[in-house]
Design a protein that fits this description.
By secondary structure, this protein is α/β, with parallel strands linked by helices. It has twelve helices and 13 strands.
């Protein structure tokens, strides 16, 4: 352990708090709990620690080593080299968040451009400067509905096909609150029509995923109509890459759009940091959590950027705020901004087409194998569920032995689906990799 404080530093700090010694500082702690003996290994030099960490990291199996077909909310996409180059510029890399916004014009402009991209992508009118990840963005969407209805509506309808981690995060947010979550216990094979009977005058929000957790794509027009007939809000959690090919939620008249921005130029990184997207209609802008950046002109008439509606959250609203978790993922939002700027509308559409076409090629060939069957016949984007002849946990071990990172074991989150694998295919999976996966699965099925 590295101790940055010298003996003189410690003495000065003790003097400042009125303690004569380190022991006196902890006098309030029971004696038998003070300064416990720790079973620590012998100390190492920095050089030795670096060697140890390199050895440990070498044991990780990553997409750099193996063809990967694992998705379930985090996807292996191509990241243009320009993104990392721009992210590592000191003025962006070392900036945290614009607490002194007027002197952070570069950061504010980047956030403004990010918001503009999200608006164009989702068909919404307002976007905030991001949230931590897709799960917290989904939870903040539910929080928004509570603010919109001033807690007078006590029900949130959540699709069972919403990402399980998102649902768990929402449940955590709402623990102890006077609101009931329904819909999560419906049959995961059900489509959005199963939610209709749950929507009533006490419903504040209906939250679905598009494409859903199983990769399925449904037209949400009728769900939107049913939701609005009851006076509730429709929230849609999106995969941003899919919107390069599919209708935007705005075309379904969605009220709130949330989602995970990781596919937009952000590496897998063993789970983060990631990027939460949140956009809405302009009439709900005062209920949205987090920062918003707006464009203005300065005293000289020059273009400039400022935080707008900043009298919010911990500044003034406090307990009446949508949320006090308002930190934006500035660096990750910048990555998404550069990614979308580089690809443009046609580039994003081309990436989406590659994902769609390769996934359907893989699904068609896997479903033709003896013992394998598509779990659903519904239209899907780049992810699909397959019934397998043996438990997915066992199958993934066999795939790993063959040098393949297999799909997600749906049995981990949906009891009874231990033999169903969720397979993701992106533009990074070559035809040769897909064919190899199919061949290995065929061998396994014939053993």
């Amino acid at each position: 352990m590295f101790h940055p404080h010298t003996k003189t530093d410690r003495e000065e700090m003790l003097k400042a708090v009125g303690a004569d010694s380190m022991e006196a500082l902890f006098a309030a702690v029971p004696k038998d709990q003070r300064f416990p003996e720790l079973d620590l290994p012998p100390r190492l030099t920095e050089m030795e620690v670096m060697g140890l960490l390199q050895d440990l990291s070498a044991g990780n199996e990553t997409h750099r080593d193996l063809p990967m077909f694992l998705g379930a909310g985090a996807y292996h996409h191509y990241i243009p080299a320009a993104i990392d180059f721009i992210l590592r510029r000191g003025e962006f890399y070392t900036a945290y968040t614009p607490y002194q916004p007027e002197i952070s014009q570069g950061t504010l402009q980047a956030i403004f451009e990010f918001q503009s991209h999200v608006i164009n992508l989702t068909g919404m009118e307002v976007s905030n400067a991001s949230h931590y990840d897709g799960a917290t963005a989904a939870a903040e969407a539910v929080n928004m509905s509570r603010v919109v209805f001033r807690n007078k509506r006590k029900k949130a309808v959540i699709s069972p096909a919403l990402h399980p981690h998102y649902r768990a995060t929402i449940d955590t947010y709402l623990e102890g609150e006077d609101i009931t979550v329904v819909g999560e216990d419906l049959d995961p094979e059900s489509d959005p029509t199963a939610l209709y009977d749950l929507i009533d005058s006490d419903t504040s929000i209906v939250l679905v995923q598009y494409p859903d957790f199983f990769g399925r794509v449904y037209d949400l027009t009728e769900l939107s109509e049913k939701t609005h007939e009851a006076g509730a809000l429709l929230a849609v959690s999106i995969n941003p890459i899919a919107l390069g090919l599919l209708k935007s939620p705005g075309e379904f008249d969605a009220d709130i759009v949330c989602g995970e921005g990781q596919p937009l130029g952000i590496p897998l990184s063993f789970g983060g940091p990631y990027l939460g997207l949140l956009a809405t209609k302009e009439k709900y802008v005062r209920s949205i959590a987090g920062r918003l950046v707006g464009e203005t002109t300065d005293v000289d008439g020059e273009r400039g950027f400022v935080l707008t509606l900043s009298t919010r959250e911990q500044h003034i609203k406090r307990e009446r705020a949508s949320s006090n978790i308002c930190t934006n993922q500035g660096l990750m939002a910048l990555a998404a901004t550069v990614y979308l700027s580089l690809l443009g509308k046609e580039g994003l559409r081309e990436v989406a087409k590659l994902n769609y076409q390769k996934a359907h090629y893989a699904a068609r060939h896997i479903a033709s194998l003896e013992g394998f069957e598509m779990w659903s016949q519904q239209t899907f984007f780049n992810e699909f569920a397959v019934k397998c002849p043996l438990p997915v946990a066992e199958l993934n071990e066999l795939l790993l032995d063959a040098g393949i990172m297999g799909g997600y074991d749906l049995g981990e989150v949906y009891p009874g689906m231990e033999n169903v694998m969720l397979i993701a295919v992106t533009e990074m999976n070559s035809k040769e990799e897909i064919d190899y996966l199919v061949n290995v699965l065929e061998e396994v099925a014939n053993e």
